Amino acid sequence: MMEELELAIKPILAILAAIALALLATWLLRLTADHVFRKIPDFKRRSAPAKAPVFVVLLTVGLRIALASTVSGQPWFGAVDFILVAAFIAALCWLFLAALSVAERLLLRQFSGRVTDSRRRRRLTTQVTLGRRVISALVITLAVAGLLLTIPEVRALGTGILASAGLISIVAGLAVQSSLANVFAGVQLAFTDALRIDDVVVVEDLWGQVDEITMTYVVVRVWDERMLILPSTYFTTTPFENWTRNNPKIKGSVELDLDWDTPVAELRTHLDRLLASTPLWDGRTGDLAVTNAVDSLVRIRIVVSSADSDDLWDLRCLVRESMVEFIQQHRRSSLPRQRWEIMPAATDLATDSAETGATSV
């Protein structure tokens, strides 16, 4: 009786001891990490997602050691041992993913504080984000392969998946699998700096901003808040406009068709006053010129510049509205109009000639 009671109590005590030791080890590791990385701002809060997977990893290791030392001879130990090994692999994968997420957050925070160049910051953000996703996919693949390797019946399948994680197999698969082609295109976009998060682009005749870049697709937020989702291969095979590729500063134009009586000098003076009074203009370009004069109209083209595409859109609208208002209030003669010259009919000319001849007689 006592032996049976002892056999029943020993695994319970071992399990409780494993849980207690896992909690203690997690707490000590947490204190050590907070001390080592104390100079990193907000490290404790940003590293919180890694606390749970660390505990689970330590717990599965402790439980396996505890049960192996107490009930290894029991017939059900094999099934429990398999579950613990699978849980350890899954927890280890979870820990790696959490660590990658924490590293991504800390790096992005450092970039936002130290890198003042907007273009470089967006490039680094894109590369860090996509790099984390690529490594995460590799970790998950290895974890699945590791789980399969624990099952003798499917060990061959697990070995195949593990081998497919190799670089040679991935490169070979790119030639025949469109999904892997999208993955390769996504990595190419990020690490060749062809496209970055927050870039302003024109795709499919739509103006928008890159909202997200993944390994297989790119999300573009169109100006009306719609989300345009395009495969990564689209940006490696199709020409597209990138308005912020080298610099967010940009130029734009406003065109007006007016009458020949338009005082160009007055319009240019009004434009100069308008640009000087608005913060939307960055001071680089503010020109007005006649670019065409055909038939009854002259075309006035105004070229202005702004710090970014959002300001440029607002500035173009402001210039257009101000010019229309100025012409309406001060130069209505500049409004477009058609001119006709009414010529007398041929019969009227003949009648006039006959009457003139009769009078002379």
Characterize the structure shown:
With 361 residues, the chain is of the alpha+beta class. It has three domains: 2-186; 195-242, SH3 type barrels (Roll); 250-334, Alpha-Beta Plaits (2-Layer Sandwich), CATH 3.30.70. The protein has helices at residues 2-36, 43-46, 51-70, 77-114, 118-149, 155-164, 167-174, 178-191, 232-237, 264-276, 309-330, 346-360; strands at 200-203, 206-213, 217-222, 227-231, 241-242, 250-258, 286-294, 297-306. Strands 4-3-2-1-5 form a five-stranded antiparallel beta sheet. Strand 1 and strand 2 (206-213) form a beta hairpin. The relative contact order is 0.06. The model has no long low-confidence stretch (mean pLDDT 78).
Summarize the topology.
Elements: H1 2-36, H2 43-46, H3 51-70, H4 77-114, H5 118-149, H6 155-164, H7 167-174, H8 178-191, E1 200-203, E2 206-213, E3 217-222, E4 227-231, H9 232-237, E5 241-242, E6 250-258, H10 264-276, E7 286-294, E8 297-306, H11 309-330, H12 346-360
Antiparallel strand pairs: 1-2, 1-5, 2-3, 3-4, 6-8, 7-8
Helix pairs in contact: 1-3, 3-4, 4-5, 5-6, 5-8, 10-11
What key phrases describe this protein's structure?
361 residues, alpha+beta, SH3 type barrels, Alpha-Beta Plaits, 3 domains, five-stranded antiparallel sheet, three-stranded antiparallel sheet, 12 helices, 8 strands, elongated
